[in-house]
Amino acid sequence: MILVRLKSAIPALIPAVVLTAFVELAVRQGWVKSYLVPAPSDVARALIESHAELFGAVATTSASALIGFFLSTFVGIAIAVFLSSSRTIQKAFYPYAVFFQTVPIIAIAPLLVIWFGYGMRTVVASAFVVSIFPVIANTLSGILSTEPPLRDLFRLYGASTWTTLVKLRFPAALPQILTGLRVASGLAVIGAIVGEFIGGQGLGSVVDVARTQQRVDKVFAAVLLASVLGLALFGLINLISYLTLRRWHASEQ
Fold first, then answer.
1. Over the Cα atoms of the chain, what is R_g?
2. How far is CA 53 from CA 122, 192, 220, in A?
3. Which of 1, 26, 162, 234 has the most crowded CB, counting CB atoms within 10 A?
4. What angle is formed at CA 217 by the lines to CA 214 and CA 222, rounded to 5 degrees?
């Protein structure tokens, strides 16, 4: 199984290796200025030289992003279940969820600092705000997409609304819920980084300080670690999806 996974990753690694080699060559030959795009070797050197600071920042950002993501998961699913309970409720409140999503996080981040102060609470709130809408939208879509014959069958046997939700609608919506969580996982990291630009701490703070110091190599190193963090969270959701759906859903077979 591990060998199969490794072989499947080879096609994705080839473009990364080629691009890295090309960028290294372009910077060393002077085709691209190093103060605009650093050589990959310089980024690797920055990772080694500043490893204590960078990996400490990764731990801080990871904690904030994970808390914000888990909050958006539970709150988003609860809101979606509430919205699915009635068409009237859905028409009344769903537009506000859409409006909430359209507000740029960078515009309300200063307000989060005013409300929560500098530090982790602001970063968590930023990650939560950014990542909640995909959970709401995908969960609601999945619950409402339950096949009508199955709903009629449950109604015929006198199943309660709660029983229908737990034993039919929610399991049927699980593939779409997990799709929403995949989107939300990356957005949670983005929201955490944006919150750290304003509220301090973590990779966002490292990027901001390195920018003022004109340390482009360190900026790229921090951005690379942020991307790895997002990929790790995305991979975790993929693993959960595989373990949950592999026995009965075509998407994981």
1. 22
2. 21, 17, 14
3. 234
4. 105
| Contact (CB, 8 A) for 70 and 78 | no
Burial readout 179-208 (b: 16 or more C-beta within 10 A, e: otherwise):
bbbbbbbbbbbbbbbbbbbbbbbbbbbbbb
Q: Is residue 57 a contact partner of residue 206, using CB atoms and an 8 Å limit?
A: yes
Helix axis angle, 120-144 relative to 87-102, nearest 10°?
140
Left (φ > 0), alpha (ψ -120 to 50) or beta: where does 30 sit? left
Is pLDDT above 70 for 1? no
d(C-alpha 155, C-alpha 226), whole Å: 48
| pLDDT, mean of residues 214-238 | 90
134-144: pLDDT as tens digits: 999 999 988 88
- Model confidence pLDDT, tens digit, residues 90-104: 888 888 888 877 877
Domain assignments of the chain as residue spans, ordered by start? 58-252
In CATH, which of 1.10.10.10, 1.10.3720.10, 3.40.30.10, 3.10.25.10 is domain 58-252? Answer: 1.10.3720.10
- Residue 165 CA to residue 181 CA, distance in Å, equals 20
How far apart are alpha carbons 253 and 223 in whole angstroms? 34
Say which residue the tokens 């914000």 belong to. Answer: 68
Residue owning tokens 């595989």 = 242
Position 180 confidence tier, pLDDT thresholds 50, 70, 90: very high
Give the integer Cα–Cα distance in Å for 141 and 191. Answer: 24
Output the CA–CA distances (angstroms, integers) from residue 248 to 101, 153, 179, in the order listed.
33, 20, 16
Cα(97)–Cα(225) distance, rounded to whole angstroms?
31
